[in-house]
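Q: Predict the bound structure with magnesium ion.
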Amino acid sequence: MPVLLLDLDKTLVNVEDFTDYCSALRELEARGFAATSAGPETYWGKCTKKVMDILLSLSGDEWIEANKVVERYEIEGAEGAVPMPYLQYFLENTLDMPKAIVTLLGAAATKRVLERFNIAVNAVVSREPGIKPKPHPDPVLRALSLLGASPEKAVMIGDSEWDELSAKAAGVRFIAVTNGREKHFFTTPFITRDLKEAAHLVRKL
Ligand SMILES: [Mg+2]
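A: Predicted complex:
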């Protein structure tokens, strides 16, 4: 039985569409924060991508300040968030698999979303100081260490190219959930449309 590493936003729950990342971006830019590196192309809103690129670029005190700004908006977003299709089906059909959340969302918003939707997991790695975010392998490796699992035992499931790069860099198999999107940049052979298909596929790996 594999252990599951699960992205949160738009894999299990839709938080992004309820989070005002454009206001967060304006606030970050007003404070002089800018991206000096960028994660892979994906299908997020433009503001979301820019905010995540800025957080990816920062470290130390600057990261802490910027993270606080973004987290305020995400906590609001967590209150409006809605489950992705087949969330309950997925959870019920993977009850026997240990799970960790590996998310780019801030810790407070992550906690709130997991509570609101009764998502029970064995470990959580959110956006936190000292761990380089996805697409770096670091959060995936941290989740594996919290679960006491090796990369070969694990399968990561996510909806974005950032998830895939992170899993790949950590040596973990990756199931993409496209949410019906036709244009994507996934390279994994394991492509699914939604959590129902992902729940079936993960049993065959
Ligand atoms: Mg996601």
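A: The two ends are 9 Å apart (CA to CA).
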